[in-house]
Design goal:
binds zinc ion; 6 helices; L-fuculose phosphate aldolase; zinc; 20% strand; globular; binds the ligand C[C@H](O)[C@@H](O)[C@@H](O)C(=O)COP(=O)(O)O
């Protein structure tokens, strides 16, 4: 697992305001081992030694993994093609879910990188129910209503591109709603 890339991606998510405060979490799977951001951590300030480690069975090997660990693990167990998961609180993507508007895929990037967007109703953050309902989805891009987004990738770069592209499509959707008012 490329720990320096993991830290760099977390820093960019924070610096580009896909998360604020201690929000968001990231994980990477390497065979039967999962590397996760620690619960309560500020993604912009992480060091390589802060990265928590679990196995796919849910045993903690190192540190205190994210409170959304069940969400990450349930997806990895179901989706053998997924090796990275990014959860953010992307503001426009989340805002549209608050006003019950679906994100439209409006440009070429959206069509290429997002394909379909799934939606999960609001369930308490960190709950097994939220994890179960999210893991039921088959899309790689999932909106957690009134909470944030979850993007799945074959690797960390793939998941990161989906986070950025999703927020761009959300911004375009919002602009379209405002112009068409
Ligand atoms: C309230 C929590 O911040 C929730 O939003 C959670 O989903 C999150 O984003 C960060 O939780 P961790 O710090 O436990 O990863
Ligand atoms: Zn969250």
């Amino acid at each position: 697992m490329n720990k320096s890339l993991f830290i760099e991606i977390c820093k960019r998510l924070y610096d580009r305001k896909y998360v604020v405060g201690s929000g968001g979490n990231v994980s990477v799977r390497d065979k039967n081992i999962v590397y996760l951001t620690p619960t309560g951590s500020i993604l912009g300030f992480l060091k390589e030694d802060d990265i928590a480690i679990m196995d796919l069975d849910g045993n903690i090997i190192k540190g205190n993994p994210t409170s959304e660990r069940n969400l990450h693990l349930m997806i990895y167990r179901k989706r053998k093609d997924v090796n990275a998961i990014i959860h953010t609180h992307s503001i426009v993507s989340t805002f549209l879910s608050i006003i019950d508007k679906e994100i439209e895929i409006l440009t070429a990037d959206g069509k290429v990188f997002l394909k379909k967007i799934g939606y999960v109703d609001y369930y308490e953050a960190g709950s097994v129910k939220l994890a179960e309902e999210t893991a039921k989805r088959d899309e790689d891009v999932i909106i957690l209503k009134n909470h944030g987004v979850v993007c799945l990738g074959k690797d960390l770069i793939d998941a990161y591109v989906k986070v950025e592209t999703l927020e761009e499509q959300a911004k375009l959707t919002l602009l379209k709603l405002l112009v068409n008012k």
